[in-house]
Amino acid sequence: MKTTKKKNIRELPRSLPGARSGRSVDMKCKEYDQTDYLDYIGFSMEKDRKRRFERHILTCDACVQGLKRAIELEQQEGASIPQGELDYFLEGLRFRLDQFGQVGSSLLLAAAADDKADAAADRVGIAHGVAVDPEGNRGFIIQCVASVSPEEVEKGSLVFNAEQVRRLDEKGVAYEPTSPCQFVESKLKELFTSHAVFLPFRLSRRNIHVELEHPAEEGYFTEAKSLTLTAIIAILSALTGRMCEVPVAFSCRVRQDGALFPGVGHVAAKLKAANEAGIREVILSTANQEDLPPQYLKAKDFTVRFFSHVGQVLSHLGLFAEETAGSLDLSPAPWDSGPRSPSWKSLVGIGVKKGVPKEVIVRLIEAVEDLCQMRNEMRPICTALVVGDTERIDALLPESEIRLVSTRKTPHPEGYLHKLAPVVDGELTSFVLDKNGRFRSIRKVNIALQGDFKLNPLLSDPAARFALISAVTEALIFTLDPWGNRVQAFSDGELVCRYFNGGWHSYDLKVLQETLTRVAADKGYDLKVLERMAKAAVQMSYLHLGGLFLMFPEGASVTAKYENRLTRMGIEMTSRPLLDLSEEELIKFAKEDGAVLVDSRGTLQTFMAYLKPSSSTPVEAAPGEGARHLSARRFTAEMGCFALVISEDGGITAYVDGKRIYWL
Q: What is the DSSP letter of 510?
């Protein structure tokens, strides 16, 4: 399809068109009658019939008129429907009809939107995406509603709100919400602060709220990556006061270099849903051109447009900031240029050194990023990928009972992985890929490896096991663990990167190990005790658990410097050597509010200790340090001790004598 740059964004009209004249007011529908209309506005129509009726009414003037009469009848007879629910129904139906510009909408507008001459303004800040059910068989429209503060602030905010997946326990009880929309939120924050297309809008200095709405019967959002472009259009529409001239839907993910890549899945189902909903134009990535069903090549009043860059879409819609229009190179950036993070570039470089082509490693990184926010409604996706020399990998890892029928190389591995990942559990098995990105086999990874291997002592199982596999096979390994939307990357026996909150973060545990060795020598601490605390801290950071460990020197009197909350609760704790505790026990103590106190001999004295350093102690807090970090700084400055602080966002910070000596 051609990517004609015809602008279809227009300035907001000041009034709605009035009802058409000469229309008959005595029409009857062959499929629905007055009983159906009363059932519908009374919220008692059966769900499937309700869905069919809502599609039908978009093109049936008789039903629009029948609904209007039913509403008037209910109001005349002292409607049992609460006015709030009736107003909600009317507004929703008015919007549904009005947004697609279908015939008959003006008749209902008289009843549904009294005194709303500027009702079209309600469409500013609204864009539409297309999603599919978990099986990919049926599509439906997602409405994205954005609001943007007109005034600038020192530090803006971007918040997404949506009905998302609940993680279920073994009994099927929801105990923790997951956040697939966090993926989009994090990506947009990076785009708005770094990409030249968006800098003139100064979106990082505005408060932005985005609401994702979908039909209630469709359940929760399980993934949101294809709504990235939809959210961008809604936000810029809200900021500029412009809206789409014709009904447009979007299904694209925007990469950090502005490219619309890779293509999204289930194109046929999405286009069918958009067409049935009255959408007149759908915008996709050029990567999806080969997926276009032939019936849409010459479809009447329905156009599919393909673009390769977000800037091209904004130019097509007339949403470019005036100072940037026509002055930017809209071609996708090469893999090693900004605004990619240094950690991302380092990971790509590791893959290239191992003989994996740049385009292959980039696609695989994109694929595991996607898996982070693709959720199975019963549980998060947990899987693993071992990429490298398949002969070495097969010689070490036994073959699984689950086998690939045929090996394959796919240009879009994220779709293939999303389909098979729930079956290939990363705690037990892993995909094996060769250096060209071809899926070769499924192998067992829950094995005991024999030999004299020197691994970083701060790694816990299963991270230690994957690090060992990477060392023996010289492979690059990606693991998605079952605790949440995070990826770990291993190479040459080390944990080299983690992906969470929408970005890659380097993890150099060798530096932490060296820091602990210096502290042990300077303070006379047992290095093994420090390593056990740090090992628990590394695991807690991955689980997004906050905590605080303190180790004070011999002879230090700290009793007056903290409040023993266990005593207040009527509990006593018997002192115990920290090395006698399991990692699980230590994490259990550390994740509670307060600090874990360890003396110079390595004995755990108490936990849940409320520190009481003097507020007058002079310390220089670093940017981003919270109350826990500031308390640790002051306490170590006063007592001359060592502190290890774990943040819920994954950071680990070490303090000695009030100074920060390490930050991960």
A: H
Give residue 473's pLDDT: 92
Burial of 28 (0-12, 13-18, 19+ CB in 10 A): exposed
Residues 465-505: tens digit of each pLDDT: 899 999 999 999 999 876 656 789 999 999 998 887 667 88
645, 629 Cβ separation under 8 angstroms: yes
Residues 489 and 469 sit within 8 Å (Cβ to Cβ) = no
DSSP class of 156: -
pLDDT tens figures, 136-195 = 677 888 888 888 887 888 778 888 877 554 444 444 544 444 455 766 777 788 788 777
Question: Is domain 511-663 classified as CATH 3.40.1700.10?
Answer: yes
Instruction: Please report, as a single letter, which amino acid is at residue 9.
Output: I
Instruction: Name the strand (E) or helix (H) holding 188.
Output: helix 181-194
Asked whether 380 and 482 are in contact (CB, 8 A), the reply is yes
H helix or E strand, kind and range, residue 359: helix 358-372
How many Cβ atoms from other residues are within 10 Å of residue 463's Cβ? Answer: 21
Provide the mean pLDDT of the chain: 76
Enter the pTM of the model: 0.60
Alpha carbon 158 to its chain's center: 13
Q: Any residues with CB less than 8 A from the CB of 19 and at least 6 apart, and which?
A: 106, 107, 109, 110
Separation CA 94–CA 88 (nearest Å): 10
Q: Kindly state the tokens that stand for 383.
A: 């899987």
What is the third-level CATH fold of 121-317? Ribosomal Protein S5; domain 2 (3.30.230)
408 contacts: CB under 8 Å, gap ≥ 6: 416, 438, 439
DSSP state of 400: P
The upper half-sphere exposure of residue 83, i.e. CA atoms within 13 Å in the direction of its Cβ, equals 3
Tokens encoding 252:
């694209």
Q: Which helix (H) or strand (E) holds 375?
A: strand 375-376
Instruction: Say if residue 465 is exposed, middle or buried (CB neighbours under 10 Å; 0-12, 13-18, 19+).
Output: buried
- Look at the block and give the residue holding tokens 């080299």: 496
| Distance in angstroms (rounded) separating the CA atoms of residues 524 and 519 | 8
Average pLDDT on 428-449 reads: 89
The whole-angstrom separation of Cα 194 and Cα 174 is: 38
Q: Where are the alpha helices (DSSP H) in 42-146?
A: 47-57, 61-76, 83-100, 105-112
Q: What percentage of the chain exceeds 70 in pLDDT?
A: 73
**List of long-range contacts for 590-593, beta carbons under 8 Å, 24+ apart:** 590/536, 590/537, 590/540, 590/545, 590/547, 590/548, 590/549, 590/646, 591/540, 591/545, 591/546, 591/547
Q: Where are the domains of the chain?
A: 17-116, 121-317, 350-506, 511-663
Tell me the average pLDDT across 7-32: 43
Which residues, in sequence order, are bridge partners of residue 144? 127, 212
Q: What is the CATH number of domain 350-506?
A: 3.40.1700.10
Report the distance separating Cα 355 and Cα 358, nearest Å: 9
Determine the Cα–Cα distance for residues 398 and 386; give it in Å rounded to an integer.
13
CB-based contacts of 449, cutoff 8 Å, min separation 6: 396, 465, 468, 469, 472
Domain 350-506 matches domain 511-663 at the CATH topology level: yes
User: What phi, psi does 395 have (nearest 5°)?
Assistant: -70, -25
Sign of CA dihedral 439, 444, 448, 451: negative
Q: CA nearest 111: which of 67, 79, 74, 76?
A: 67
